[in-house]
Amino acid sequence: MTSSAPQDTGHRLWSVDEHLADILATVRPLEPIELQLLDAQGCVLVEDVTVPVALPPFDNSSMDGYAVRTADVQGASEEFPAVLTVIGDVAAGSGELPTVGPGEAARIMTGAPLPPGAEAVVPVEWTDGGTGGGAASGMTPASAAPEGAGGEVRVHRAAEARAHVRARGSDVQAGDLALAAGTVLGPPQIALLAAIGRGTVRVRPRPRVVVLSTGSELVQPGEALTSGTIYDSNSFALAAAARDAGAIAYRVGAVADDADTLRSTIEDQLIRADLLVTTGGVSVGAYDVVKEALTSVASGDEDIAGGGIDFRKLAMQPGKPQGFGTIGPDHTPLLALPGNPVSSYVSFELFVRPAIRALMGLPESEVGRPSVRAVLKADEALGSPAGRRQFLRGKYDAESGTVSPVGGSGSHLIAALAHADSLMVVPEEVTSVEPGSELEVVLLG
Fold it and tell me: What integer pLDDT is reported at residue 284 of this predicted model?
């Protein structure tokens, strides 16, 4: 790697780390609420959940078969099967249970409680299924042949004590910690909560993120393009990224380059936003409407003023122009991202995703994407501007521990972004990365 000292550009340049730290110092976790289990999916627990009852709550069968006493099937074989009297059925959910005595067996279904007197379960495949024939492959349905719950069954193999029996409390015991505060509730965690009888749980709700793209040139997908127009991809990309981060995302169609229209749109959206994200209009052009509109708001000229939006230049590529602050009576956080598709997406991953995760109540160590060290696999050295932290699209190979560039460094190259699964990070002081060099890689998948 070739290094060069950062250059003084004559104005304040924020580092990536400073900008992120400012965001995380401002964003506060949402207030906890009580939610039904399915509504709590994707949310973060705010309290420890303990187990009120053992799971499973009783000894039960792990197989369809027969509940037996081990002494009655000792030495059983194909040639000399143990012949037992079937005294009834034990189905899952059975209340009153038959008592299995010497020389007796009870048909038992998977999940059914082990009846008194029984010490083990022999799978139906080890028996004749009560038919008097050879090894059975299944049981006759009780509705089709009630007599199957009576008569005799021949058992062809011995069983040890507790064979095919799930012991009471073998999953969790009463009083055990089921889930700790800070756990993100996915399907397995929802299943556990339901299994221990919890109908509701106290969590921080998923943040509501409103995404607005700006630009009079933007046309919605499905509509016809005219001269000088392009399709709005940013709002779709960022809304999808917000959902991926754990938020409830609301995508607002592209707003034209008019400051009054943008201010009105933002005011309308504040009612349903825990976080606002805009894309485009934050640079120094004559039509950079976000900067114009929100600078006015930050000065207190509008009813939606409630904090202030600071527009900054960051020592990074892509994504140099950024805006951040709070807006409205509830001081709702707002992040203003650049409009080029790659700049916008990279900025989201570096700054918006951590903000969303912070709103969810996750610790700072868990708000960003994971990163690894990998060896650059490329045909030539990668160049990088002095004094800028560069983020290049890459394809990471975990097996070989290498990363390869995908596409060029242009901030408009969205096709390359679609084929990348990582971002290669070139530090500010590095201007060239040779093949075979090790560098940090942010994993996007």
Answer: 60
Confidence of residue 28 (pLDDT cuts 50, 70, 90): very high
- Please list the residues that pair with 231 across neighbouring strands: 219
> What pLDDT is attached to residue 147?
55
pLDDT at 127: 94
**Residue-level pLDDT at 3:** 47
Q: What is the pLDDT of residues 150-163, one digit of tens each?
A: 689 999 999 999 99
| Residue 409 reports pLDDT greater than 70 | no
Question: Which amino acid makes up residue 419?
Answer: H
Residue-wise pLDDT tens digits, 78-125: 999 999 999 999 998 888 899 999 999 999 999 999 999 999 999 999
Q: For the chain, how many residues are written?
A: 445
Per-residue 3-state assignment (H helix, E strand, C coil) for the chain:
CEECCCCCCCCCCECHHHHHHHHHHHCCCCCCEEEECHHHCCCEECCCEECCCCECCCCEECCCEEEECHHHHCCCCCCCCEEEEEEEEECCCCCCCCCCCCCEEEEECCCCECCCCCCEEEEHHHECCCCCCCCCCCCCCCCCCHHHHCCEEEECCCCCCCCCEECCCCCECCCCEEECCCCECCHHHHHHHHHCCCCEEEEECCCEEEEEEECCCEECCCCCCCCCCEECCHHHHHHHHHHHHCCEEEEEEEECCCHHHHHHHHHHHHHHCCEEEEECCCCCCCCCHHHHHHHHHHCCCCCCCCCEEEEEEECEECCCEEEEEEECCCCEEEEEECCCHHHHHHHHHHHHHHHHHHHHCCCHHHCCCCEEEEEECCCCCEECCCCCEEEEEEEEECCCCEEEECCCCCCCCHHHHHCCCEEEEECCCEEEECCCCEEEEEECC
